[in-house]
Structure formats: C-alpha cells, structure tokens
User: Fold this.
Amino acid sequence: MIYRAVFHVDANDDKVFGLSLSNAANLLKAIPEEHSDVVMLFNGPAVQMLRQEGCSHLDDIRSLQEQRVVFKACRNALAKFGVSAEDLIPGCRIVPAGVVELIVLQQDGYAYIKP
Assistant:
C-alpha cells in the first residue's frame, strides 16, 4: 500500500506550520519509507512562511525533503503576497493554482489533511 497524503497549509501561522511539519514527520515514522507519497501544499498567506530568509523550520523542512516530501507553493498566492520564486526555500515547486492542485491530488487518491 502507498500512503498518499496532501497536507494543506493556508494560514500564515507559525504554530500551524510547525504542526503540519510534525504531522508529516509522524506519518513517515509510522510507515515504511518506500510506501509514502507526501505533499505539503501552501496557498494563501501561508506561502510567506516558505521564504528561506527567516524561516524558523528550515531544518525540519530539509529533513522532510530528504524523505521525499514535496513542498508546493501556489503561484497565485506568491504573486498576491509578493514572494518571488528566488525567495523560496530550495526545492519548493510552484504550481499554477493551489486549489486546482488540491483537486488533482485528491482525485489521484491523496488523503486531504488540514492541520
């Protein structure tokens, strides 16, 4: 079985951000590594937390990326909140619209998790 999950983060709230990272890490601890396909999707004001400069969870993000967790940011939100692609933590993928990406992932069988 492959455990597919998308963690949806849409608030510019450090506690929610930390909780979502902990939830993803706990999921990965509970299942064999080769059985996971995890995405963390950021849209709305949450994209501001993916700025490399000043990110309080950089080590946790890098650890999750090393475990194949994919971080995605909504292009619409980046534009709205003035965050450039160059500002983002390395390895973040930009998707055209976060809400569309959520629909696509759910239709592909990803469990929706909202910390």
